[in-house]
Specification:
This protein is of the alpha/beta class. 39% of the residues lie in helices and 20% in strands. The protein contains 14 helices and 17 strands.
């Protein structure tokens, strides 16, 4: 068994390099991984025989008259589906093993369904979205609006969609799909998407807050999600820093903002409209939200010392004009505070794309990729040329 460990490690190194840099030549793999040419050649041939890699057209070699063939992951060998379940919408993205998106859609969430009916509906939606690729579906990852305890997949604190807390929901979903399901908090997956493809792609340690109808948090250290025992890591919205010990989450999320506007006799249907309004009576409400968010950002900085803090969700978009001032105030409190940025590139698809990454990690693990190599795959430019707006188009079922 001990003799096999280096072989497994070398195989993982080669496969990870191809996933990160492919298509790539055998020579380049050896030069950039410090593996011997003989070792690289042997592993590549094994992976080709297993159908995990495929050869592409040759590229000019430094040796006259020869062309060096490149190898890439056999992307069509399987597909994965990333699902972001929210209280308002469900977003899905289907991708091949190279993380190239094949299909996607956004569908309103039937929030009035009970747990069994919601599970059946979601399973049907996943099958419809995967479509003709269903026979090659290898893994589904589902982000849920609640704290997920990984060891037993218990879901708690999901007030916007309490049905997902019922154990029957995940049990029926897995039974209906007849494939492995990864599950996590939706904000964790949103951060995973930003780490691979978005605003946190060049960082090792990052924090993300998703602010909408609820407040979600994701933390990554050395490019790995940090979840803790109960899935509550980074959930600073629970801090009792509001009036009479009220939770900060009640101040900065949509329902709380709308409630305070109504108290002023200013009814709004959308919390974001409160920030777009120039009514002077709303100034205290905006200041109140900013102060609550500042407390949360400060807590994140002193707890994790992130290189970047990413804000996502509908409320964060409404705060765009105020981000500069918010960042300045944060640095007055903690001079070493990082930049506070928005999920500008991925937008509302952060969670679904992060779920794709989680599903791919599960698939790669079954192909022999070591845990230590997962933080660097898939390719960061896998979305190059992809029309994210079309991918997230809202449809009705």
């Amino acid at each position: 068994m001990e003799a096999q460990a280096p072989r497994r490690a070398n195989r993982s190194t080669v496969l990870a390099h191809v996933l990160t840099h492919g298509p790539v030549t055998r020579t380049a793999i050896g030069q950039e991984t410090d593996l011997s040419p003989a070792t690289v050649s042997r592993i590549v041939e094994q992976l080709l025989d297993e159908g995990l890699l495929t050869e592409t057209d040759g590229t000019p070699s430094t040796t006259r008259g020869r062309r060096a063939t490149r190898v890439a992951i056999a992307a069509g060998r399987g597909v994965v589906c990333g699902v972001d379940v929210g209280g308002s919408n469900v977003r899905l993205v289907v991708a091949d093993l190279a993380a190239t998106p094949l299909a996607g859609r956004t569908v309103p969430t039937p929030a009035d369904y009970d747990a069994p009916r919601l599970a059946h509906w979601l399973a049907d939606l996943i099958r419809q979205t995967v479509g003709d690729h269903l026979d090659r579906l290898t893994c589904v990852a589902v982000g849920l609006p609640g704290a997920v305890r990984q060891h037993d997949r218990t879901v708690r604190n999901a007030p916007n969609l309490p049905q997902v807390e019922d154990p029957e929901f995940l049990r029926l979903l897995e039974k209906q799909l007849a494939t492995s399901i990864e599950v996590d908090n939706d904000s964790n997956y949103a951060l995973l998407g930003e780490l691979r493809f978005g605003a946190a792609r060049d960082t090792q340690t990052a924090v993300m807050f998703t602010i909408g109808a609820g407040l979600g948090a994701g933390v990554a250290i050395e490019r790995r999600l940090f979840r803790g025992r109960s899935g509550m890591v980074g959930e600073f919205g629970h801090l009792p820093a509001g009036p009479l010990g009220g939770a900060l989450e009640q101040i900065i999320t949509g329902p709380g903002i709308l409630a305070r506007a109504r108290d002023l006799g200013l009814p709004f249907d959308n919390a974001a409209d409160v920030f777009h309004s120039s009514d002077p009576r709303l100034v205290p409400v905006k200041q109140y939200v900013e102060q609550a968010l500042l407390i949360i950002l400060t807590a994140a900085v002193v707890a994790y010392e992130p290189e970047v803090i990413v804000l996502g969700g509908g409320i964060s978009h409404a705060l765009t004009p105020d981000l500069g001032r918010l960042g300045s105030r944060l640095r007055e409190i903690v001079p070493s505070a990082p930049a506070v940025v928005q999920s500008a590139e991925l937008g509302d698809l952060s969670g679904a794309l992060g779920a794709v990454v989680a599903a791919l990690h599960s698939a790669y693990g079954r192909l022999g990729l070591a845990e230590s190599d997962l933080a660097h795959v898939p390719q960061a430019d896998a979305l190059a040329g992809c029309d994210l707006r079309a991918l997230s188009a809202t449809v009705t079922t």
